[in-house]
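>> received
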Amino acid sequence: MKLPLSTFLLVACGAVHFTEPNPPQLFRSVAQYTSDAVPEPVVWLPVLDLFTESGNAAACAAAHDWTLQAIHDAMTAIQAPQMELQHADLSPSCAQAADRSLDTNSLEQEIRSAVAAFPSAHVRVVVVYANDIALEVPGAIVDGLQTLRQGGLLWTMTRDPVSTQLASDRTIGWTFVSDPALRTAIGSAAALDLPLQTDSIDDGEKPILGRDDLPRAREIKICAASQAVVQNAAANGTPSPVDTRRPPTFRPQFTQHTAVPKSQFSLQHAEIDVEGCSAHCDRYFSARPGDLRRWETTAGCLL
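>> returned
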């Protein structure tokens, strides 16, 4: 018996398999979009709370000057718009009086002024609290720092138990005034977290098929979609016809992150994995002998 030309039989070890003479012409491609990052201004507020045993005014002044300069140098090394706010000094004579407290009203006004100075940015002020004594601080200081921290960040240059007590966003372990390692640690912390990063997201429609794939694609299946919304095509793995006048597209679906420490920030990625068919889309696909699936009626991608 003569077989029809459209049908071929493979006979091997007693098995007979249908072989599709015109299998679907398939291809795979991936469409991607990655968000960008916008660096935010670096704005900082030093809060000094230092102690010297000697009561020496010169030693106290030197400790204040060195600490302020170390913070200043770390922040100004960052490539971004900058503003240093007038520092607060809780212990001008380095005595750490038990009843010391923060004037949060005036400091909050400074913070509001700094935010207003960068109207198009997302400013989070970094409050840098420096304390060289390993004793818990009074509750009034804790409350004041937490008030200033709202909407911003709290960094501490402290010893335990102060570091644990304040639960800061970034802790630099205090050693001693004029220690090069402490200066380096402040600079490393600034380089790690600053400038703060904000997502820049273009949420417009993006093509799923490239310029070479769009003209040849008769139908497509979406194999997988990550952080994206598919348009002009089914997103469930079933085939969709391709209309070049209204081609399949996607929009990134990201969560907006604003003024995030650089060490905690990462770019976001949207990805569409697609399988296209350029001819014989209604015919059978075979991945191996005995495996026959009609491409158009099989959900999911086959390549």
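>> DSSP finds five helices and 19 strands in the chain.
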